Sequence to fold (282 residues):
Amino acid sequence: MTLSDTEAQARTLGGYDDASRLRQAHDRDWVLDRVTGEPGVLIDLGSGIGQLLEAALRRHPSLRLAAGLERSEHRIAEAGERLRPYGGRVALHRADLTGPAPLPHRADVVTMTSVLHWLYPVEHRVLAWVRDHLAPGGSFLLTTYHPARDHEGFGGEDDIVRGALGELGIAPDAVPALLADREILPIGTRTRTVEQLDALLGEFFTIEETWEREAVVTVRDAAQYEHFHAATFGDYYAAALEPGLRAEFFRAVGRVAFARQRRQGRVSAMPVRLWKLTERTG
Ligand SMILES: C[S@@+](CC[C@H](N)C(=O)[O-])C[C@H]1O[C@@H](n2cnc3c(N)ncnc32)[C@H](O)[C@@H]1O
Fold:
């Protein structure tokens, strides 16, 4: 079977450089503006295509090592191309953050942007890893997204997906069971509340400071959202469907998102929190 362009894109999580301008890229400077002094080692967790590492290397000539841990081989390959000019100052590791292996480094700064929800419900493992890899005086800069969620545990992208599945003839109240059957957890369920995170993070770190911003997504047309979804979520939701329905599913995601924007002036808006975490004392 020939794949549509969007299906092929979703398989490799391609087009993220462009797509991430709509939402995730805004975390980069927000986080890096909190890096103080002259760090020698920075580790980015879920480093994607290496955009944060590149920005950090540009800002901080003091960095002798900028390391990325990432699960997707396609993303590691794209990051490798992007970071080639920085030679031996960069190390990219293929890793699953739900059970990361130790590295022989201590970092002055660890960053993790727009990733934690993917590690639910075993986030404590990566938090323990970070605690063990922070140099004395180091900090962990983490961003977390907080879509409103309903009684089904659906929020953010889940709502758009439910609408798109509706366009394919699947009743809204059948969607939770369809996803559960395929072991696809709604993102709204994966995302812990600020209160839950406050308690969880406090087990591992001192919470020095937090900031909040609103992430508002708007698109120029339905196709742009279709590609944003494929680049960000890949096949995560599409895997609930027979392969023959997936191309239409991605198109429907674009249409539903754009219709929402016409009604509300934006596709989505949700709070994002930046946490500055340091070694736990006491
Ligand atoms: C939304 S992207 C964020 C990428 C980048 N940090 C940014 O802010 O643009 C989430 C990233 O986390 C990676 N990821 C998700 N689950 C992972 C896991 N279990 N282990 C390692 N990386 C993972 C994905 O492959 C993807 O690159």
Summary: The longest helix spans residues 243-264. The radius of gyration is 19 Å.
